[in-house]
């Protein structure tokens, strides 16, 4: 069996933060977590209901850092429904919230930064300990997996996580080699591997025309590309494949319009996995990504001019009709 990990970074938006009051928190929740639109909710409750309908599992990487400005209750409102639905909660961390926390910043230095890798090892340990403890205080089991906000981790992040007893990291995105991630792995590292005392679980990728890679994110690939990538992983003998989404990706958070193209991708993915032989969805809590049995690195789904052309057309329509997230 190939285990597919549908990972959903579940987070309030620091970019939409307008103040510490309850009305401001409620507005951010409505736009970033619940995704309330005139057509109905397209966020957390929609995804949980869809997963339940088709009997599938997902991993919700929840960011507890907004508790610095809104308290633990803001995180309880996210974690409660996920746990009640029998889904997996793991740890996410956007350090941008430190810049909004004022005197609540847990670092004695008062240091702020956009990425966890912006901090020295000792302060990374402090931030991640605060994030882990807050996640647990909000009702989650002790996390065993982590993903950095913006993928912005480095090797010290992995050292800090190992000190905290967190076994898995999924911050390395091989297709975004010029992104915020500073972990000392390259675009060729596409399979789970031991690194810096952790098991690193790279996000999925497909090959692109010209020799590059494109990340396996709901907003970046068509449904046909995602399903082809999963079939390729299965047929190549890969034990796991990791997809990325966000709590708010099915809408435009500013206009509150449902992005029907992206929603069709997500809904179609969950439904199609039910009938796909040799494939199951997994969680880090109960059946985490195994290390590959083969020492040979896997190859991504080969580039296809037809699939690429269809994606470019679909993205154009999506951006034209619905705009940026």
Helicity, in percent? 25-40%
**Beta strand %:** 15-25%
CATH superfamily: Glycoside hydrolase/deacetylase
**Which value, in Å, is the CA radius of gyration?**
19 Å
So what's the overall shape? globular
Give the biggest sheet. 9 strands, mixed
CATH architecture: Alpha-Beta Barrel
Measured distance between first and last alpha carbons = 34 Å
Class per helix and strand makeup: alpha/beta
Beta strands, count: 15
Give the C-level CATH assignment: Alpha Beta
Low-pLDDT residue spans: none
CATH topology: TIM Barrel
Provide mean pLDDT, rounded.
97
**SSE series:** EHEEHEHHEHHEHEEEEEHEEEHEH
Task: Describe what you observe in this structure.
The chain has 325 residues and is of the alpha/beta class. The chain has one domain: TIM Barrel. Helix content is 35%, strand content 17%. It is built from ten helices and 15 strands. The strands form four sheets. Strands 1, 4, 5, 6, 7, 8, 9, 12 and 15 form a nine-stranded mixed sheet that branches. Strands 2-3 form a two-stranded antiparallel ribbon. The chain starts with a strand and ends with a helix. The model has no long low-confidence stretch (mean pLDDT 97).
